[in-house]
Amino acid sequence: MRVRFAPSPTGFLHVGGARTALFNWLLARQSGGTFVLRVEDTDRARSSEAMTGAILHGLEWLGIDWDEGPLFQSDRVGEHTAAGRRLLAGGHAYRDFSTPEELARDRANIAALAGEATRAARRRAESLAPGEAEERAEAGEPHVVRFLVPEGSTEWEDAVHGPMRFRNRDIDDLVILRADDSPTYNLAVVCDDAHARIDMVLRGDDHLSNTPKQILLARALGFPVPRFGHVPLILGRDGKRLSKRHGATDVAGYRRDVLPEAMVNFLALLGWSPGDDREVMDLDEIVRRFSLGRILRKGSVFDADKLAWLNGRHLSRMDLARLEPLLNARLAELSQGVQAAVQDRAGWYRGLLEMLRTRARSVDALARAVLLYLPGEVAYEPAAVRKHWKRRAQVQEYLTAFRRTLDGCEWQPEPLERALRGLARELGVGAGRLIHPLRVALTGQAVSPGIFDVLYYLGRNLSLDRVERALETLAAGEADPAPAGHAAAAPVDR
Ligand code: GLU
C-alpha cells in the first residue's frame, strides 16, 4: 500500500491535517507499505518555507516518519503542464478564449441554470472554426485550457462512505492550465499521485468534490485510478467545523502541555473507533488495531477535556527515563536550582514522580506538583483555607499537638500514620479533622496524595517548617478566608 500526506504549506500543521497524516501513516505501517510526504507548494504567493518547516516539525514531534519525500509539487510543474498539453492534444481538453465579461455572464447564469451554464465556455470553444483555436493561441492570444468533462457519471467505492456517485453534468469543465501555462491544483495532484504510484488517497471530506474531477483526469491521462477514502471533518463543541474560535487548531500549540503519544492517541480516536472501550493506546497498539472499516462516517468533536485526560493517562504510564528530561526542562523554567536539588536524591525523586504522576494531567502540572516537595514558600489556596482552616484556634491547637507528636517520630509512612492516628484518639477526634488542616499547611491545597506519603516525601525538616509557618500565619491572622466575592479571582483547587 502506497499512501501519502500532501499538505499545502500555506498554514501550520492543523489538527485535521495531522489526523490525515496519522491515518495514512497507520495504513502504511500496518500493511508494510510506503508513506510518501508531498508538499503542495504550487501556490507560490501563499506558501512559505517556514510553514513547510513547521509542518515537518509537527510530524516529527508526533512520531510520524515518512518513507519518501518530502517531494515538492513545484519541482514537477513542467510535467504537470506537459500532461495538460497531452490532454489538449488527445481531445480531452480545449482552449478557452472567453473574455472576463463572458465569464461573468456565465457565472450569473450558473446560479439559475446549474449544470448547463457550466458548459457555456465549451459551447463557445466548439463554435470556433476548425484550426482557429490553434491560430489564436500561436498568435499569443490569452486563454486557459479546460478539461472536457465527459458525459455520464463518476462513481467510486469510498473507503469510508461506501458507494459514491456524481453526475458529470454537475461538474464544471475545470481549468487545468492557466493563461500563463501554469497547471492548476487538481491536475498537479493527479499527476503527482500517479507519479508516486499512490494507490490509496485518504484525506478530509473537504476534498470530496475534487475526487470525481481527479478520477476523470486520471482516466483521461491513462493513469491508474487510486482508491479514495474521505475522513469526516473535526468539529468544535458547538457542532461547527473546528476553527480557532474553539481553541488552538495548530498542533504546535499543544507541544508545551501535551505529550506526543497522548496527541497521537487523541488524533487516532478523532474519527476512528477501535470498537471497544480501550482508549488509552500507544502507537504500536494503534498500528495493530487501526482499520479503514472503523473510520467513523460522522464528524467527530474535538474534546479538549478528553485530550487532557489522555495526556494524564500517558503521563502515568510512560517510561520514567523519557519523562524525566521533559520534566526537568519544565522545572528549570519554573525555578532555578531545582536540578541540583533533585540530582543527588535519585531514588527519592523517582518515588516522588511515581506518586505524583498518576494524578497530573500535564508535564507542567507535574512540575508544579514536584516543586511543592522542595524547599520554598507554600501558597495557601483561598478555597482550601476557607474549607479547612475555618476554626482557626482549633487548627492551631491540632497543628501544635501534631508538631509535638511528629518531632520524635520515625520518618516513614507507617510510623507517621500510627502517630497521627494515636494523636487523633488522644484528642478524641476523627483522623480527618487533623489531616485536612495539615494538608493545607503542608501543600497549601485541599487535595493531595495520601497525607503520610506527602509527609514522607517532604521529609522531616520541610514538614515541620511548614507546620511552623502555618502556625505563624494562623497566629498573625493572615490567610483569612477571602470574602466570597473575591473567590472567583483566586486559584481554584482541583
Ligand atoms: N494539499 C491539500 C490540502 O492541504 C491536500 C490534497 C490532497 O490530499 O489530495 O488540503
Can you walk me through this structure?
The chain has 494 residues and is mainly α. Among the domains are: 67-231, 3-Layer(aba) Sandwich (Rossmann fold); 318-371; 382-476, Arc Repressor Mutant, subunit A (Orthogonal Bundle). Helix content is 49%, strand content 11%. It has 21 helices and 12 strands. Strands 1-2-3 form a 3-stranded parallel sheet. A 3-stranded antiparallel sheet has the order 4-5-8, with helices on both faces. Helix 2 (49-62) links the parallel strand 2 (34-39) and strand 3. Helix 3 packs across helix 7, helix 12 (320-334) packs across helix 15 (363-371) and helix 18 (413-427) packs across helix 20. The longest helix has 17 residues, at 15-31. The radius of gyration is 32 Å and the shape is elongated. The relative contact order is 0.08. Residues 482-494 have low confidence and may be disordered. The site of glutamic acid (GLU) has 7 residues, from loops.
Sum this structure up briefly:
With about 500 residues, the chain is mainly alpha-helical.
Question: Topology of this structure?
Answer:
Layout: E1 2-5, H1 15-31, E2 34-39, H2 49-62, E3 68-72, H3 77-89, E4 93-96, H4 100-113, H5 120-126, H6 132-138, E5 144-147, E6 153-158, E7 162-167, E8 175-177, H7 185-195, E9 200-204, H8 210-221, E10 227-231, E11 234-235, H9 260-269, H10 283-289, E12 300-301, H11 304-317, H12 320-334, H13 338-343, H14 346-357, H15 363-371, H16 382-388, H17 392-407, H18 413-427, H19 431-443, H20 451-458, H21 460-475
Parallel strand pairs: 1-2, 2-3, 9-10, 11-12
Antiparallel strand pairs: 4-5, 5-8, 6-7
The site of glutamic acid has 7 residues, from loops.
